[in-house]
TrEMBL record:
Domain Thioredoxin residues, every copy: 5-152
Pfam families, sorted: Thioredoxin_8
Species classification: Bacteria, Bacillati, Cyanobacteriota, Cyanophyceae, Leptolyngbyales
Signal peptide (UniProt feature, chain positions): none
Gene3D superfamilies: Glutaredoxin (3.40.30.10), TolB, C-terminal domain (2.120.10.30)
Entry-linked PANTHER family: NHL REPEAT-CONTAINING PROTEIN 2
The protein, known as: Thioredoxin domain-containing protein
Cited SUPFAM superfamilies: Thioredoxin-like, YWTD domain
Length: 410
């Protein structure tokens, strides 16, 4: 069998920036280590989904596995080094990251999709290339096999990175990477999803603190405000009649309810596991797994969800405690039309005028509108609606250009 040597990370005409380590790394210096390359970009939901997988593998095979994330930007703003460093802190990436300017490494490794993994054996040869999320078990099995094989051969070396890995410390601030805010003038309340602190913060509209909800440690725990736990909460919806705040608990793949009268937190929907089933479906709210719910909009008893991970819009009937796919086939793209054919790409934000939903469709850099008729119809109202068409241009409808829009208000 012909073996292919992994292309060098440092044999380029120009040096690439490295983060989370104090000097550039080379595959030659890493001989004797199993190396896993992760091609990613921080705006991609699928790339975010695999970060816990990388953390799991990094801990399980500490000393024998070196993980290097290769950040290859899609959008212009993802090229900024400070933005990448902040993303590293926001998502808890602790291994070295090389910034693949001009997509040089992407091309050398013939990568075609986010995320893509390249597994390299201790002798510097490519073992496999895998695209897409949900690869933890496959990678785990392959790494275990390599570990056993090269232990027998005596070709494993001592850890190389212990002395040089250096993550930038996360500054202690009142808020950490807040994902969403929601204002309610009637109660003089600003609801803040303090995403990086895994909690909710309530202030007056002028910024005076009213309450914090959650321990500040990532987890899933219902109960009183002091002991409840969330994981990277994002969008919210306020129910004035019930005096309840609904929260898209994105990191837990859950929908949570905060009762402001009883000061209690409960789980409304989801199982706590990420759904791998993207085709339209539904069922009892607590029996159906969710996939990174990112924003919420409430209309009567219908709670609409921007399900970023499955590229869909979902709806929950709060009286019946059921939920189902409302719009989107699960394919990633920008397709207008009925629920049977419509497609979205990582919807991150939602708003309503009471007659239709407006969606910030981030990966197509477009604003979509969905009618609330008996047969809802999706249509693109702003932006060019293509996965790789983006920019910063004012205009009307398709003439305007946006870039990875993630929030919207009406």
């Amino acid at each position: 069998m012909v073996r292919v040597r992994a292309p060098a990370l440092d044999a380029l005409d120009h040096a690439l920036p490295w983060l989370n380590c104090d000097r550039p790394l080379s595959l030659k210096a890493l001989r004797g280590q199993i190396v896993l390359l992760d091609f990613w970009t921080y705006g991609c939901i699928n790339c975010l989904h695999v970060i816990p997988d990388l953390q799991y593998l990094e801990q399980k095979y500490a000393g024998h596995l070196t993980i290097i994330s290769i950040h290859t930007a899609k959008f212009d703003h993802e090229q900024n080094l400070e933005s990448i460093q902040q993303a590293i802190l926001r998502y808890g990436v602790t291994h070295p990251v090389v910034v693949d300017r001009d997509r040089t490494l992407w091309d050398q490794y013939a990568v075609r999709a986010y995320p893509t993994f390249v597994l390299i054996d201790p002798q510097g040869y490519i073992v496999t290339t895998l695209a897409g999320e949900g690869r933890r078990q496959t990678l785990d099995d392959l790494i275990q096999r390599l570990l056993e094989e090269h232990t027998g051969k005596g070709t494993l070396s001592e850890p190389f990175l212990q002395a040089i890995t250096q993550s930038q410390a996360l500054l202690i601030t009142p808020l950490a990477f807040p994902g969403k805010v929601l204002a309610d003038a009637a109660s003089d309340t600003l609801f803040i999803a303090d995403t990086g602190h895994h909690r909710l913060v309530l202030t007056t509209l002028d910024g005076t603190l009213k309450a914090t909800i959650g321990t500040g440690t990532a987890g899933w725990q219902d109960g009183n405000w002091e002991t409840a736990q969330f994981s990277a909460p994002q969008g919210m919806a306020w129910d004035t009649a019930a005096q309840s705040l609904y929260v898209a608990d994105s990191g837990n793949h859950l929908l949570r309810r905060l009762d402001l009268l009883q000061k209690k937190v409960s789980t409304l929907a989801g199982t706590g596991s990420q759904s791998r089933f993207i085709f339209p479906h539904g069922g009892k709210a607590l029996d159906v797994a969710l996939n990174s719910p990112w924003d919420l909009t409430l209309l009567g008893n219908q709670l609409y969800m921007a399900m970023a991970g499955s590229h869909q819009i979902w709806v929950m009937d709060l009286k019946q405690h059921t939920l189902q796919t409302f719009m989107g086939t699960g394919a990633e793209g920008c397709v207008d039309g009925s629920p049977a054919i419509a497609a979205f790409a990582q919807p991150y934000g939602m708003a309503t005028d009471g007659k239709q939903l407006f969606v910030a469709d981030s990966e197509t850099s477009a604003i979509r509108a969905i009618t609330l008729d008996a047969i809802p119809i999706a249509q693109t109202v702003c932006g060019q609606g293509q996965l790789f068409a983006f920019g910063d241009r004012d205009g009307v409808g398709f003439d305007a250009q946006l870039q990875h829009c993630s929030g919207i208000a009406f």
